Amino acid sequence: MKLDGAVVDKYVTKKLSCGDCPMPCKGIVKVPKRGLSDVRRPDYETIVGFGANLLNDDLELVTACHDACNRYGIDAVSSSATLAWACEAVDKGLLTSAELDGIDLRWGSGEAALALTVKMGTGDGCGAWLGNGVQRAAAHLGKGSTTSPCMSTAASPRTTTRASPR
Ligand code: SF4
Fold first, then answer.
1. What pTM, to 2 d.p., does this model score?
2. Does the first or last residue of the chain, that is N or C, have fewer Cβ atoms within 10 Å of its Cβ?
């Protein structure tokens, strides 16, 4: 399964919009295999964050991660950025599955991303330190681990937020 607008649209059961916007980009989706019905359509930041950012092309898992963020009230931009940092730390041998409560996180593993998203939401086990955001997670791990660009201590979104020069 690949990620693109046409694939996302297949899951939409109802379109939603802001007010009277004639181009409704929001919606309700259904993913029976994940036990999800009437949940929010993943938006751009979520699809990039839990999708391409993690080399995960399973939209149903992206949707499940998005739903977990909504249910636990955690930020999808920050959570997915922390998972990308964790994938890189695993790749570099700085972070082990034992430190991730036995979860085999690697690039492209949407199932592991979902399991860790739930842990970040509940604060269970490694979720207690992963859930504090990418910069604090890197500080917790130590071992020379560094982070991707942050604004203050928060992970950067996938859109540019620079001020316009005058
Ligand atoms: S394009 Fe989407 S986000 Fe923008 S106003 Fe319309 S519904 Fe809202």
1. 0.89
2. C
In the reported structure, the alpha carbon of residue 157 is separated from the centroid of ligand 1 by a whole-number distance in angstroms of: 18
Q: How many whole angstroms from 131 Cα to the centroid of ligand 1?
A: 29
Map tokens 């979860």 to a residue: 103
Q: CA-based diameter of the chain, in Å? A: 51
Residue 21 Cα to ligand 1 midpoint, Å, equals 6
Q: Does 164 fall in a domain?
A: no
- Decide whether any atom of ligand 1 lies within 6 Å of the 21 Cβ: yes
In whole angstroms, give the CA distance from residue 128 to residue 136.
11
Q: What is the CATH number of the domain that holds 94?
A: 1.10.569.10
- In order along its 166 residues, the chain shows pLDDT tens digits of 588 878 888 999 999 999 999 988 899 999 999 999 999 999 889 999 999 999 999 999 999 999 999 999 999 999 999 999 999 999 999 999 999 999 999 999 999 999 999 999 999 999 999 999 999 999 999 988 777 666 666 777 777 666 666 6
Q: Using a 6 Å cutoff on CB, does residue 43 contact ligand 1?
A: no
For residue 102, give its domain range: 5-152
Q: Compute the distance between CA of residue 27 and CA of residue 99 in angstroms, rounded to an integer.
A: 37
